[in-house]
UniProtKB/TrEMBL annotation:
Coiled coil: none
One Pfam short name: YqeY
Signal peptide: none
Name the UniProt record assigns to this protein: Glutamyl-tRNA amidotransferase
Gene Ontology terms, MF aspect: carbon-nitrogen ligase activity, with glutamine as amido-N-donor
Top-level taxonomic group: Bacteria
Species this protein is from: Thermonema lapsum
Length: 149
């Protein structure tokens, strides 16, 4: 099942369940996908990596909003943002453990032949493609640590 059909199915289920927060999150995600497809030079069918990038963008926006609400003591809005974040996370691929990411990065380093921190960009370009949907901050920290050793 493609992401778009899964979103459409979940939208129907959220409407039936009268789940306002899930509806809001799913409609926003659907809107982001439609915008990406209809922008100038957009494609009719998005790749999985492009879909994941859209979800990550939405997640990042909601996480920043959540942090702002938390800092300003607006607990009710912060809880709503946290609920939206949880709904959006359902559409991301399962997150690998730090150990699994490290194993994959060691393999990428061996394949690219990177020896020093100066070659981090080469490793990161391959790692972000192969580990799409994973925590980029964790990937970058792991690459940096392994190349510095």
């Amino acid at each position: 099942m493609s992401l778009e059909s899964k979103i459409q199915q979940d939208l129907k289920e959220a409407m039936k369940a009268k789940d306002a927060i899930a509806l809001k999150a799913i409609r926003e995600l659907k809107s982001f996908i439609t915008l990406e497809k209809t922008k100038e030079g957009g494609k009719e069918k998005l790749s999985e990596a492009e879909e994941i990038a859209i979800i990550n963008k939405a997640l990042k926006q909601h996480q920043e909003t959540y942090e702002m609400f938390k800092q300003n003591g607006r607990e009710e809005q912060a809880q709503e943002e946290a609920a939206i974040i949880e709904v959006l996370k359902r559409y991301l691929p399962a997150q690998l453990s730090a150990e699994a990411i490290e194993v994959k990065i060691k393999d990428i380093i061996a394949r690219t032949g990177a020896q020093s921190i100066k070659e981090m960009g080469k490793v990161m370009s391959v790692a972000t493609q192969e580990l799409a949907g994973q925590d980029n901050r964790l990937i970058a920290e792991t690459v940096k640590r392994l190349l510095s050793a």
